[in-house]
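Hi L.,

You mentioned the student needs an example of a multi-chain input paired with its predicted structure. This one should do, with 294 residues in total across all chains.
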Amino acid sequence: MRISTRARYGMRAMLALALDQGSAPLSVKQIAERQGLPEHYLEQLITPLRRAGLVQSARGAQGGYVLARAAEAITLQDVVEAVEGSFATEACDCPDGAPHLRGFCLEHALWHRLKQTVDDFLAARTLADLRDEALAAQSAAAPVYDI
Amino acid sequence: MRISTRARYGMRAMLALALDQGSAPLSVKQIAERQGLPEHYLEQLITPLRRAGLVQSARGAQGGYVLARAAEAITLQDVVEAVEGSFATEACDCPDGAPHLRGFCLEHALWHRLKQTVDDFLAARTLADLRDEALAAQSAAAPVYDI
DNA sequence: TCCAATTCCGATGAAATCACTAGAATTTAG
DNA sequence: CTAAATTCTAGTGATTTCATCGGAATTGGA
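Structure written out for the whole complex:
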């Protein structure tokens, strides 16, 4: 039960885009620099984000990526699922039952419920929440004292 | 964010022991057979369970493992943490701040909270809960109709 | 005492994940 | 049109996790 680097890096990249909304597209290089991520690996991670329809790409010079829709409309579960591929791939082979106790399936009794808890947690939060929290923390860290 | 086989196999092994409480110790071979787990790998997983004080071993012929304390006193978090090693090993390097936005740390703002949610979920359940649920499912699947 | 059943320990192979490299395709700017 | 910037794709190491193997140490029973 650990958090993959795919999820962590992917989330950082999406946050970078959320913080930059409105201006020109951000290149992978810029995202990697801002978030301290390995550039070439990030390039690889952003592909599933594009395929999932979470970001939009612009090729060529001055190209890059922007969020495909408003940060309010992208849940953190969208992001994690895009880069990790549905996570619950541990399909349960209940019918056969060989590895299960008769009439009892640990996958269903425990792990699916845990997954549901995690999904609920992530689905209840959007990129906008993260963005706003980041902005609030930034302004608190560097308040303007000029009167 | 996926569930490791260490956690899944370790949990199954512990459940097997919880269901067997009171009789002779279970050997790794027996546990592996009952739960359909790779025997040699399980042997490797049970070592951290022993070191964490969750199971007690008896060496030699007729040896094996028993729960070190009552199933009611072993939370699922105890089990997962024993086999996975605290899970939150993603120590945050906030002070330096290089990979973080100024005054904002995604590890703390998101992943630590998610971890806390998972920990709460697992800590609120004990092996006894799983055992009782398994027993209930078994008797429901094979009810006694003799009057 | 000897044998079989075990735990226990270390090494090795196999598969997945993490990360980098190289280069083709595409687009903007001059 | 050319050059630079960039996405996009495929392939290759490096590292971690998953799983097996071999064998030493320990214990109960014949």
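You could point out the following to them. The mean pLDDT of chain A is 86. The first strand of chain A starts at residue 55 and ends at 58.

Best wishes,
N.
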